[in-house]
């Protein structure tokens, strides 16, 4: 089973994003995110995923309860358990 790690940026009031996008856009933070997640699987909610730039070099999973949703370059899952089952052979996965 994979180690499950969380990677996020939160504001002083606990906020995680702004207008369905990134809360901040600091070059150093984005470089850190890239270095830690490169080649790994990451699970995002569909609203978060839609607000992100392209994330090349990662296995992207999108959590949604909506039917008939498809995202290019991402795998849609209906539960965290489904994500964990699909990634069970990986060393570490991320929830973002």
Give a quick set of tags describing it.
96 residues, alpha/beta, 24% helix
Word description of this protein:
The model has no long low-confidence stretch (mean pLDDT 86). Helices cover 24% and strands 26% of the residues. The chain has a five-stranded parallel β-sheet with strand order 1-7-4-5-6. The protein has one domain (3-95): Dihydrofolate Reductase, subunit A (3-Layer(aba) Sandwich). The protein is an alpha/beta fold. It is built from three helices and seven strands, in the order E-E-E-H-E-H-E-E-H-E. It is globular and about 35 Å long. The longest helix is centred in the middle third of the chain and has 11 residues, at 27-37. It has helices spanning 27-37, 46-50, 80-86; strands at residues 3-6, 17-18, 21-22, 41-45, 59-63, 75-77, 92-95.
Write the layout of secondary structure elements.
Blueprint (H helix, E strand, L loop, with lengths): L2 E4 L10 E2 L2 E2 L4 H11 L3 E5 H5 L8 E5 L11 E3 L2 H7 L5 E4 L1
């Amino acid at each position: 089973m994979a180690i499950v790690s969380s990677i996020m940026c939160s504001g002083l009031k606990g906020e995680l994003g702004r207008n369905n996008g990134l809360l901040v856009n600091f070059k150093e933070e984005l470089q850190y995110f890239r270095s830690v997640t490169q080649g790994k699987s990451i699970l995002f909610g569909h609203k978060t995923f839609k607000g992100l730039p392209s994330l090349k070099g990662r296995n992207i999973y999108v959590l949604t309860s909506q039917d008939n949703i498809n995202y290019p370059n991402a795998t849609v899952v209906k539960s965290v358990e489904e994500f964990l089952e699909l990634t069970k052979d990986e060393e570490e996965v991320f929830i973002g």
